[in-house]
Write a structure and sequence with these properties.
This protein is an alpha/beta fold and 208 residues long. The protein contains seven helices and five strands, in the order E-H-H-E-H-E-H-E-H-H-E-H. Helix content is 38%, strand content 12%. The longest helix is centred in the last third of the chain and has 20 residues, at 188-207.
Length: 208
């Protein structure tokens, strides 16, 4: 059985944009992916609401991607590590530059390649933030127009990084769109599409 670590933020945690809670195990994409995989792959969920990729999060180590990731890598050996993270670094309070986004994802990749050098890495770029975030009761205070504009660079930055570090790359841009509730997260149908798309790519990834 191959082991897969799914490392990310609230979209890996399974945040439900309609309720503000968490989708059930069989509704969020990590749980659906496990069901699809059966006994062939073991899925470890490592998502966390509000987790940043490279900015030191005010909520501490657990919420700071590059600081907490080594603990997951030390806890077990993984055949594949999925990195889908970066949206929260675009919160207005961090005011990151495009260059910082590039450095941030490259640093995360380097951590994996140093701490778990035998693992394959799958890079999934965060989707462009939807305009609905500007009117969201919860998230409009965190994200602004600059956040939306910078999110348009995720695909290019992450695909370049994946190529530079010889990682697998998967874009969900043509598969899902952010919920109309907040412009950031995905509904139940989106969760299923995410799981289906990742599952269909696993054989390709492990055959290489």
């Amino acid at each position: 059985m191959k082991k897969i670590l799914c490392f990310g933020d609230s979209n890996t945690y399974g945040y439900n944009p309609e309720t503000g809670g968490r989708f059930g195990r069989q509704e969020r994409w990590c749980g659906i992916l496990q069901s699809l995989c059966g006994k062939e792959y073991a899925i470890t969920e490592a998502g966390c609401n509000n987790r940043t990729c490279f900015r030191d999060n005010f909520d501490g180590k657990k919420f700071t991607g590059y600081r907490i990731l080594p603990e997951f890598l030390a806890a077990d050996k993984y055949d594949l590590i999925i990195l889908w993270i970066g949206t929260n670094d675009l919160q207005r309070q961090y005011n990151v530059s495009i260059n910082e986004i590039q450095y941030g994802i490259e640093n995360l990749i380097e951590i994996v390649q140093t701490e778990s050098h035998d693992s394959k890495i799958l890079i999934i770029p965060p989707l462009k933030i939807g305009n609905k975030v500007l009117t969201s009761k919860i998230f409009s205070s965190l994200f602004n127009e600059n956040s939306i504009e910078k999110s348009k660079y995720f695909y290019e930055i992450y695909s370049t990084a994946a190529n530079k570090y010889n990682c697998e790359f998967l874009s969900l841009e043509n598969t899902i769109t952010p919920s109309n509730h907040d412009g950031l997260h995905f509904d139940k149908n989106g969760q299923k599409k995410i799981a289906d798309t990742i599952y269909k790519n696993l054989n390709r990834i492990f055959k290489q």
